[in-house]
From TrEMBL:
Residues making up the signal peptide according to the UniProt record: 1-28
PROSITE patterns assigned: TAT
Highest classification ranks of the organism: Bacteria, Pseudomonadati, Pseudomonadota, Betaproteobacteria, Burkholderiales
Family, as annotated: Belongs to the bacterial solute-binding protein 1 family.
Subcellular location as annotated: Periplasm
Any one GO CC term of the record: periplasmic space
UniProt entry keywords in alphabetical sequence: Signal, Transport
Protein name, UniProt field: ABC transporter substrate-binding protein
Gene3D superfamilies reported in the protein's UniProt record: Periplasmic binding protein-like II
Length: 438
């Protein structure tokens, strides 16, 4: 894991500051600065997911306005619910019209790689300038030796918990192993302070913790050769664990989507969940004294390690895709570059208090990660996480299996008792084989 110092950070990002000072032109060519000249009369439409942290949206829009002022390119930004971005992106890919740029999820670009513009030149430029892409970002953004998308960052996922309630249950913090974690959740349930994890069609929170649960016990959807291996003893063990964990949940988690656990935690319905930093952000920035007190009680921790003996976390990578149907590819590339350059990216990440962690290693040294110790656990998201195709390759099949919620449905069915662990695993295997055709 690469850790850059504050000095490294300042040195690595000094170039863009110098470039922006030349005649007020953000695209001034200094040194190895990459320049894309927007087409005359260019207009762009960007589709992105709706913010959970207000600072994210405010700075994104401010940076977009700054881009327009510097280039004359008008940019329209549309925000959609997390679950709605994926189908809208797929429609744009299939019909060849719609947004020029979509900021989507996970390995969705691998569902329609032939509909996307090659971004290798820009990706390689950013790689050299900002300390390199994390390996998992390369895996998500590349298909073969070509970049089909640019990772914008990772919405870090961690255990969010109320320190006072965990201590009241007899624990000093979150146990580092799955066995101890189950005991904590059972103790919290006995204290009438239950836990809750999303089991509905939650793109982020549901998929993240469900994949962790499976992988922590050694289960996986496919092996290295893309053979479907989900129906295995390791999966059955993971699903038995899910049943025991589910017994400690607050009612209603089978229908939870991404906003649901935020609301449940802030409403004092649950003591523990898995989420990004948005719960803490909401409490910390509230004017309500009760929420401000809650912020002081909130702590974060990495998800526990299971029988496999190593971290097995999935986190929600978000990627910027540029579609071939755009009329203004140079303007669009210029926009992507502008948003990932240090002058824009650093203030954006700070405004969102680290809700999206960096895809490029130089940004590890951003002070957002150390200004508040409760932020730090989210810093290492990209360095720590596995990709959702694990252990097989990313591609059309892995993207489709996730989009169809095959793994999450399996966990929900087994945890709730709707199916036995073996029946749930068998059904998941049959569904996955529709996409992983051999």
């Amino acid at each position: 894991m690469t850790k850059l110092t504050r000095r490294d950070f300042l040195v690595s990002t000094a170039g863009i500051a110098a470039a922006s000072a030349v005649g007020g032109n953000a695209f001034a060519a200094t040194g190895n600065q990459l320049v894309y000249k927007p087409e005359d009369g260019a207009k762009l439409r960007v589709l992105r997911w709706k913010r959970f942290v207000q600072g994210d949206e405010d700075l994104w829009n401010a940076n977009t306005k700054k881009f327009t002022e510097k280039t004359g390119v008008e940019v329209r930004v549309d925000s959609e619910g997390w679950e709605d971005v994926r189908p809208k992106a797929a429609v744009a890919a299939n019909i060849g019209s719609g947004p020029d740029i979509v900021i989507g999820w996970f390995d969705d670009p691998h569902q329609y790689p032939d509909k996307l513009i090659d971004l290798s030149e820009l990706a390689n430029y950013l790689d050299k300038k900002y300390g390199g892409w994390y390996d998992v970002c390369k895996k998500y953004g590349m298909r073969g030796d070509k970049w089909i998308a640019l990772p914008l960052g990772v919405v870090g996922n961690a255990i969010v918990y109320r320190e006072s309630q965990v201590k009241a249950a007899g624990f000093d913090g979150i146990p580092k192993d799955t066995a101890g974690f189950l005991k904590l959740c059972q103790a919290l349930k006995a204290k009438d302070t239950p836990v809750g994890f999303a089991l509905g069609k939650a793109v982020g929170d549901g998929n993240n913790w469900a994949h962790w649960l499976l992988w922590s016990h050694g289960g996986m959807m496919v092996d290295e050769k893309a053979n479907v291996v989900i129906n295995s003893p390791e999966t059955w063990e993971a699903l038995e664990y899910a049943k025991q964990l589910y017994a400690t949940f607050v009612p209603g988690t089978l229908s939870w989507q991404d906003p649901s656990n935020n609301k449940a935690f802030l409403d004092n319905q649950v003591s523990v969940t898995a989420n990004g930093i948005s719960v803490y952000y909401a409490a910390k920035n509230s004017t309500d004294p009760k929420w401000q007190a809650l912020a002081k009680d909130i702590q974060h921790a990495h998800l526990p390690i299971g029988p496999i003996g190593k971290p097995t976390e999935l986190m929600q990578i978000t990627q910027m895709m540029l579609f071939q149907h755009t009329k203004y590819p140079n303007a669009a590339k210029a926009y992507l570059q502008f948003m990932l350059e240090a002058e824009q990216y650093n203030p954006w990440m700070e405004a969102a208090i680290g809700y999206v962690s960096q895809p490029l290693k130089a940004y590890e040294a951003n002070p957002v990660w150390t200004v508040d110790p409760k932020h730090t656990v989210y810093r290492d998201a990209a360095a720590l996480m596995l990709d959702n195709g694990h252990a097989g390759p990313l591609g059309t099949a892995s993207a489709a299996v996730m989009a169809d919620y095959v793994l999450l449905d399996m966990i929900a069915n087994a945890a709730s008792g709707a199916k036995s662990p073996k029946d749930a695993a068998e059904q998941a295997a049959e569904r996955a084989k529709r996409y992983y055709k051999t």
